[in-house]
Design goal:
Layout (H helix, E strand, L loop, with lengths): L4 H4 L5 E6 L1 H4 L10 H12 L6 E4 L7 H11 L7 E5 L17 H17 L3 E5 L18 H8 L3 E2 L1 H6 L17 H15 L15
Parallel strand pairs: 1-2, 1-3, 3-4, 4-5
Helix pairs in contact: 3-8, 4-5
């Protein structure tokens, strides 16, 4: 279980989701909730923490270079207690004409800079791996990102969504809108994985019982 003290305390918390289109949760959900919105219902309603605040300042198409550039306005000004940070799907785009690729050393340095900044005001960061690319459909985005080793190096909790999805390989197409964007079902799976990591998954709760193919 990740950072259980954050939910065991009655003190109000501010939670902020930051990342690219997967976290932004637009378009590919076809109007359904994204995983940060499922988290909001689980936290503020079902877990009876209405004074907690949940923000999502992710931006579709951004890599960590852009995330770092916009960090002061989209993260630092709120000084959240917890930043749930997911990035990499654009950084690993080796099709240089798209202008998204970020070298691995810079990718890690960008994440580390954001992590240290959050720690600077007393906040916590939870890193999250991105969802997998459907095999053979976007080979330019299949570069392996060293999030597990980075999380260990910086002593940051990690939610490994990729590992969960890879264990459900035969079902992945049902959770995807295209080669690498989760659809509404995919966002439910992301939310359930997050709930389990935080120790708040409960099969009797409405948000935990949402249908998954």
């Amino acid at each position: 279980m990740i950072l259980p003290s954050l939910l065991q305390s009655s003190s109000p918390r501010t939670w902020l989701f930051y990342g690219d289109s997967i976290t932004h949760g637009v378009l590919h959900t076809a109007g359904a909730r994204c995983f940060s919105e499922h988290f909001t219902e689980r936290l503020r309603f079902e877990l009876e923490r209405p004074d907690d605040v949940v923000l999502n300042t992710a931006c579709s198409g951004h890599n960590t270079r852009q995330m770092l550039s916009h960090f002061p306005l989209r993260v630092a000004r709120f000084q959240p207690d917890v930043v749930l940070l997911m990035a990499g799907m654009n950084d690993c785009n080796s099709r240089l004409a798209d202008g998204q690729y970020v070298p691995l050393d810079e990718f890690c340095a960008n994440l580390a800079t954001m992590i240290y900044a959050v720690r600077g005001w007393g906040g916590e960061v939870i890193l999250q791996t991105v969802t997998p690319v459907l095999p053979g459909q976007a080979s330019e985005r299949e570069l392996t990102l060293p999030l597990c080793s980075l999380a260990a190096e910086l002593a940051v909790p990690l939610i490994d969504h990729a590992a969960v999805w890879e264990a459900l390989a035969t079902k992945q197409p049902a959770y995807m809108s295209d080669a690498f964007h989760p659809n509404a079902y995919g966002h439910i799976l992301l939310a359930h994985t997050l709930f389990r990591a935080l120790g708040v998954f409960d099969e009797a709760a409405p948000s935990c019982g949402l249908f998954l193919p």
